[in-house]
Amino acid sequence: MDPVRNPFAPGAGQRPPELAGRDRELHAFDVVLERVARGRPERSLVLTGLRGVGKTVLLGELRSMAVRAGWGAGKIEARPDADLRRPLSAALHRAVRDLAVRHRAPDRVEETLGVLKAFALKATPPDAKLKDRWQPGIDAPVLTGRADSGDIEIDLVELFGVVAELAADVGVGVALLIDEMQDLQLDDVSALCAACHELSQSGAPLVVVGAGLPHLPAVLSASKSYSERLFRYVRIGQLDRSDADFALTAPAKREDAELTPAALDALYEVSGGYPYFVQAYGKAAWDAAVQSPIDVDDVRVAAPDAGAELAVGFFGSRYERATPAEREYLQGMAELAEGRDEAVQTAKLAAHLGKRASSLSPARDSLLRKGLVFSAERGWIAFTVPHFGRFLLGRD
């Protein structure tokens, strides 16, 4: 098979050739776009799921939908070591530029940019040296007095209101998309919830779409109790059998190639239906096949190569970030769950490792911060990466 024509594309945040199994989420967001554009209230959206299920890809697709609808749209990736003000300023600057193309009043656009610039400049501490002062790159004079108090919660509420007013002038909305939302700092989570609460009460045409790991709802709820009613939560999981098959057969058909039913059986077994693994094993099977149709023997030949590549790039890169104590913790989790993608009880894990639960807390907390494990329920812990336990048990 010609490797140049290989249609499969495993990659972090890279859109697969066929976005299979996400029609429900795409249709729901299309309804959000229509409702907000008509002045109807709509909750912001939060996508949750393990790594490798396509949250980032779906977030990018929702952004494209917003842009095609004429909305202003900006996307950021949260980082645990950075506050929200600077990346948020850049994302909303992009959204305002999208709106400026359609707005007929340049003065209103400049006024909005002036407020945004005042908000952005508060990212620099007042006592910072001149060489350390950050300039947001917004070509407008600063408009002081709004969204520049220095309190992120007060400022974000005001800024969202100003940007939403500009969108309302055009008859569209603004979509702010936040990836890795669980990594936001606590003050920023609280501010974002407060701003979304204000938006929901006023019906302003601005929607926040967040994506993060399965424990993200717990992070939001711990910040503001009303967040449970503030967002619409959508769990993104692995593809069912028909969607996984379609993700493989449709791109192959466009390249005049086919897969046998036995090959599809084998590919679903090794991938578990996780979109990233579907692409990785599909790509390897294509490269291993001599001719169409790709059969089960091609999958068997390709599987070790695909697994070895995943062991280095997908699993290994994460494992290398862990300290020896953290690796012992991860290994114990894998052994207790017998390699399955299941949560384990922390008390049983301590007993399995022959240690006191309190002595394992530092490793657990560090792994939580690194995004390698999550705890959606008190006393339980699970891997954020599917098949990670299987990888650990399969290491030499």
What's this model, at a glance?
InterPro entries: AAA_16 (IPR041664), Cyt_c-like_dom (IPR009056), P-loop_NTPase (IPR027417). The protein is α/β, with parallel strands linked by helices. The chain has helices at residues 23-37, 55-68, 85-100, 106-121, 152-170, 186-202, 216-223, 227-230, 241-254, 261-271, 275-288, 296-319, 324-337, 346-353, 357-370, 388-394, and strands at 44-48, 72-77, 174-179, 206-212, 231-235, 344-345, 373-374, 380-383.
Protein described:
With 396 residues, the chain is of the alpha/beta class. The radius of gyration is 23 Å and the shape is globular. The chain has three domains: 23-235, Rossmann fold (3-Layer(aba) Sandwich), CATH 3.40.50; 242-318, Helicase, Ruva Protein, domain 3; 323-394, Orthogonal Bundle (Arc Repressor Mutant, subunit A). Strand 7 (373-374) and strand 8 (380-383) form a beta hairpin. The mean pLDDT is 90. It has a five-stranded parallel β-sheet. Strands 6-8-7 form a three-stranded antiparallel β-sheet. It is built from 16 helices and eight strands. The longest helix has 24 residues, at 296-319. The protein has helices spanning 23-37, 55-68, 85-100, 106-121, 152-170, 186-202, 216-223, 227-230, 241-254, 261-271, 275-288, 296-319, 324-337, 346-353, 357-370, 388-394; strands at 44-48, 72-77, 174-179, 206-212, 231-235, 344-345, 373-374, 380-383. Residues 168-275 form the Cytochrome c domain. It comes from Actinomycetospora corticicola. It holds the Pfam family AAA_16. Residues 1-21 are annotated as: Disordered. GO terms for molecular function: electron transfer activity; heme binding; metal ion binding.
